[in-house]
Amino acid sequence: MRCLYISLIAIFFSACSLINPSQTLPANKYFSINLEKLEQSQNKKNATIIVSLPKGLAYTNEIFYKKDYTINTYAYHFWKENPALMIKSFLEFHLQDLGVFKAVLNQDSLASADYVLESKVDILEQDFSDELHSKIKFGINLNLVQINTKKLIASKYFYYEKELNDNNPQILIQNYDEVFLLFAKDFRVWIDQNLE
Questions:
Q1: Is pTM beyond 0.85 here?
Q2: Cα gap 192→188, rounded to integer Å
Q3: 18-27 burial, b for 16+ CB within 10 Å, e for fewer?
Q4: Looking at residue 19, what DSSP letter applies?
């Protein structure tokens, strides 16, 4: 009886690990949105702007996808930083690169700002229709507010979708880069038009 008990314990502990000790886990891969310089605006303002942290995102750096109405994450594939900070950096980069404002200030800056760019991300996901085919979606609402008067200067909802025929996370990130490049171009035109 004792021999049987020891054998069962040995079998139990040998089955505890799904990974063979000689195997190694895959390395984590980290991704971020490409920041590509675009054409600068001719419209110059002697004003400053602050970009507020986008609302509506989970504060984690996991890359999410949806399949059969269930939210999942990719194993070993992560955003370099959480998506809210990544999108805030993206917006700040493009405001700075556009050259419309005298300065793009940090949220904790001691300098006073003339405008604030508020944002809310409604969707940032990959939605699978089957094992291979999916659609990436990105939707963000932007509000440009004049701080002194608290007047809403402009508001716009930007929405983008792109079909994918591959379930590789690296292909996903390449396509997110294309979607964010489209958003950058539209965002810059919108800012330029609303500050004339």
A1: no
A2: 6
A3: eeeeeeeeee
A4: S
